[in-house]
Amino acid sequence: MTTETETNKYVSYLDHEGKYKGIFAWIFATDHKRIALLYLYAIAAFFFVGVTLGELMRIELIAQGETIMNAQTYNGVFTVHGVIMIFMVVIPGLSAVFGNFFLPILIGAKDVSFPKLNRLSWWIFMVGSAMAVASQFLRSGPPDTGWTFYAPYSTTTGTSVILATSAAFVLGFSSILTGLNFIVTIHRLRAPGMGFFNMPLFPWAIYATAWIQLLATPIVGITLVMLIAERLFGIGFFDPNLGGDPLLYQHLFWIYSHPAVYVMILPAMGVISEIIPTFCQRKIYGYKAIALSSLAIAGVGFLVWGHHMYTSGMSEQARWFFSLLTFIVAVPSAIKVFNWLATMYKGSIDLKPPFLYAVSFIFLFIIGGTTGLLLGSVATNIQVHDTAFVVAHFHYIIFGGMGFAFFAALHYWFPKIWGRMYDFKQATIGWGVLFVGFNLLYFPQFIIGFQGMPRRYFDYLPQFHTGQVISSVGGLILAIGLIIMVANLVKGARKGAPAPANPWGGSTLEWQIPSPPSVENFDEEPSIKKNPYDYQ
Amino acid sequence: MSEKHSHVEEHRDDEASKLGMWLFIFTELLLFGGLFLVYSIFRSEYHEAFHKSSLELSVTIGAINTIALLFSSMTIAMALTAMQKNNKKLALLMIGITLFMAVIFLINKYFEWGHKFEMGLYPGSPLMPLLDRGYLLYFSLYFFMTGLHALHIIIGMILLFICLFKVKNGTINNKRYSLLENGALYWHLVDLIWIFLFPLMYLIS
Amino acid sequence: MANNVSHITEYRVLGKVLLVLMLMTFLTITVTSFDLGAFSVTIALLIAGFKAFMVLTYFMHLKHESLLLRILVGSVFVLFALIILITFIDYAYR
User: Contact at 8 Å (CB) between A82 and A149?
Assistant: First the structure.
């Protein structure tokens, strides 16, 4: 062979031949892009299991009385639906997939700071997921406590709580290590010339998210260990008969689980902050405000957890405090929404699928967010706590918010990841069906919830029947929309037209490199702009 | 091959490793933080019971353990200084003393716990649920917190043993001591936790 | 980036810090042997906090680390303190 030349020959990361062969080239990979795809495929599979469980619940609820399952089974179904969706889909979701794939690229780096730790994160994720699945079938039957595992029921029920909570503990470890990796990466591996305030907004979002993952997760970790110890040894922390306090469990649980929802939504908002400028061909309005609002949400988000507990027996002063902080934490989110809208105003708008998902995100997030205010105010909370209203609220925020942002990210970065393009028309149809189905599924639940329909009930009074039917029909339409969307993307990945480096006219670094990227991302030194959203 | 070696070297980032260890330390602080939170709640609710239960603990042994850990914190810091000054012998000696102090701590712990077990006090024992509420909570917390702490002592010892071997075979040297630095940081964390655990468990009488 | 020999903590300094720590330990034990009611906890925690500060600053080398790291460490303790305080808003008034 001839002597080595300066320029590296381009090899897509998908085709690169390394030390390992076949499947091992993937499961032993340390390339952040391969790890991102490993997470994607696993999470997609878990998502579809979670959706199926959700659809089973909708079938049960389409009629009064026992339709396809009894009460105990229903309890098991909503529990595992929550565990899978929360711990195996939505919390890792955007960070582990798109954070892994694009964080290094967006800051001009070749990989994360600790690639082997990254690989370990994925392995731990898979082990935890296997344990969660196992808890359904092994030992004494699927847990029936809800994904929240409230004491004292969780400390006394005969079902496989220990296995399920151990699974959550292991999954938490994966989350912590990912957060650690991303924080160090952002501090150490930004390309020369890229200060913190020259970074695009997705890395900012990932940064804020990583801090929450790092600091909040250990608390739920120790809480679950306490729960297990209570089951095994009767240590008394949460058992009122032994001098403990069930509310203490709720405090400890929500001290993590509230910040966790910001782990879900912050990267989603980061994605939207990337898509909107590109499809309006306009600099984002209020870059610094959006960047700092991510940190503000992360910080204040640690102090609001009690709004899940207004009716639990907390002191009046506590309720007052948490309500105040909850209203405060809404402000930085609102700032983002206003800035996105301002960016669109008089922009050169291109209604491609990523933008459709981004705009519908804003719409659904506003509904979810404002209904959150209703829940955040103590007096109105009493009416709607533990009703279908709450279920509708968090599905609008998590599914309508994070979920739609995930789909937006998929459609936005698809050409970069797989080097191919999907069909726009089918993507748009899929989006439309999905959007209609989603609203039909969840909006009625606001109404019947407000009227008194409890959550986690498999049966209900006759006055809620109409709402439940509309909701279940919506669920069916949603499923069809998901199938259309996924089928289109799979088709595109397999035999879509080859995609150019910059199909959307984006200005951030990922669009400067080939689609798909080469193994070390940048074969030439990237040119770092002071303003990441620099359009002609 | 020299190319591969320089490839690895150019990826070496000691500042990143140090930051990473500090971040991990944060997670450990919050892990124990959850337990300190539980402790503070129950202590305020069962003030008298906590006070009386802590009389079962030996302040002397607790003090010896505290001094052992503080001393070991100094010796591991000295080990790092020695390594930075290329004094391999002293570094090995200091790491050895640190490990020895850790063993003393664990032996004391063994006797403390053994004594409790003999009295019928252990998690899940038939005696525990018969205790009055505050007493049960105090001892549950005692075993949980000192147990989790002891686990971290063991993890720290494993880390330091690895450092010991690597100093011995020259992998850790005065040009490359990140592993020892970070191992020492982890050890200091274990000491930090005990600094709070000691007064809260032993000195509330 | 290889280790910069930026600052090495002298043996002497480490020895002095240990002496201070042992002194503080002795002080804690002595003070808490008197019945000072609620003050006992406060004093014990203050002394423990000071000991922790010494370990962090000298043994863990924070005195010579970047401002960023010092702010981060401080922030973690502040966050933890806030969480305890806020939880007590519930328990103190029930």
Answer: no
**Chain A residues closer than 8 Å to B144 by CB:** 226, 229, 235
The residues facing B173 across adjacent strands are B176
**pTM over the 0.80 mark:** yes
Residue B195, pLDDT above cutoff 90 = yes
- Give yes or no for residue B128 having a pLDDT over 80: yes
**Contact assignment for A243 to B32 by CB distance below 8 Å:** no
B45 to chain C: nearest residue by CA?
Answer: C91
Question: Does B188 sit within 8 Å of C28, measured CB to CB?
Answer: no
The set of residues, in sequence order, having a beta carbon less than 8 Å from that of A404 and lying 6+ positions away, is: A357, A360, A361, A364
Residue B127, classed as helix, strand or coil, is: coil
- The C-alpha angle with vertex A87 and arms to B155 and A330, in degrees rounded to 5, equals 110
Kindly list the domain boundaries of chain A, sorted by start residue.
Answer: 24-512
Is the pLDDT assigned to residue B63 strictly greater than 50?
A: yes
Does C11 contact chain B (CB < 8 Å)? Answer: yes
- Rounded to whole angstroms, the Cα distance separating A119 from A515 reads 23
- What is the percent of chain B with per-residue pLDDT over 90, rounded to a whole number? 86
Domain ranges of chain C: 10-60, 64-94
| Residue A348 confidence (pLDDT) above 70 | yes
Q: Are B156 and B72 in contact (CB under 8 A)?
A: no
DSSP structural state of residue A387: B
Chains touching chain B, criterion 3+ CB pairs below 8 Å? A, C
Q: Among candidates A125, A93, A104, A108, which has minimal Cα distance to A33? A: A104
pLDDT at B73: 97
CB atoms C29 and B203 under 8 Å: yes
Mind listing the pLDDT tens digit for each residue in A4-32?
Answer: 444 557 889 999 888 888 899 999 999 99
Q: Which residue of B has its CA nearest to A185?
A: B16
pLDDT at A523: 87
Q: For the residues of A247-281, what is the DSSP string, one character each?
A: HHHHHHHHHHHHHHHHHHHHHHHHHHHHHHHHHHT
Query: To the nearest whole angstrom, how far is the Cα of B126 from the nearest Cα of chain C?
Result: 30
Residues in chain C with CB shorter than 8 Å from the CB of B177 are 3
Question: Average of pLDDT values for A274-293?
Answer: 96
Interatomic CA distance for residues B127 and A484, integer angstroms: 62
CATH topology of domain A24-512: Cytochrome C Oxidase; Chain A (1.20.210)
So what's the architecture of B17-202 in CATH?
Up-down Bundle (1.20)
Per-residue pLDDT of A67-125, as tens digits, reads 999 999 999 999 999 999 999 999 999 999 999 999 999 999 999 999 999 999 999 99
B65 near C CB under 8 A: no
**Chain A residues with CB inside 8 Å of C92's CB?**
315, 317
* Look-up of token digits 């998908």: A14
Contact predicate A278/A504, CB 8 Å:
yes
> B177 is written with which tokens?
């001591």
pLDDT at residue B142, rounded to an integer: 95
pLDDT tens figures, A484-529: 999 999 999 999 999 999 999 999 999 999 999 999 999 888 889 8
pLDDT recorded at residue B129: 85
**Are C2 and B176 within 8 A, CB to CB?**
yes
Q: Find residues 25-44 of chain B whose CB sits inside 8 Å of chain C.
A: 26, 29-30, 33, 36-37, 40-41, 44
